[in-house]
Known about the structure:
By secondary structure, this protein is α+β, with helices and mostly antiparallel strands. The protein has a single domain, classed as Conserved Hypothetical Protein Mth637, Chain: A (2-Layer Sandwich). The chain contains two helices and six strands; from the N terminus they run E-E-E-E-H-E-E-H. The chain has helices at residues 48-60, 88-102, and strands spanning 2-4, 8-17, 23-28, 35-40, 68-72, 78-84. Strands 1, 2, 3, 4, 5 and 6 form a six-stranded mixed beta sheet that branches. Strand 1 and strand 2 (8-17) form a beta hairpin. The longest helix is centred in the last third of the chain and has 15 residues, at 88-102. The radius of gyration is 13 Å and the shape is globular.
Amino acid sequence: MIRETLAGVTLAVRAHPGAKKTAITGIYGEGDTARLKIAVQAPPIEGRANEALIAWLANFFSLSRTSVALVSGETSRSKVFLLRGVKIARVQSLLANSTKQKG
């Protein structure tokens, strides 16, 4: 789900567009194929959901929008985003804190 690269961290996401609000809803899959499930308020039309995810991820990880890039899955629910200039420990910490608050 989370992998460190030279440029930053990649985050595998399973998007659910058309939701009431954008939020992390859990984990999709197991092991190496696990993805972070994110409900997205925007519809999956003309890239709106992708843009909404980029904006939400940038806000969630306190990054600029230009530091978040869609690497793969432009037309799929399964996507991979690159979070530039961030360390894996920070991503793991923020995600762990987010899931603790939900439970």
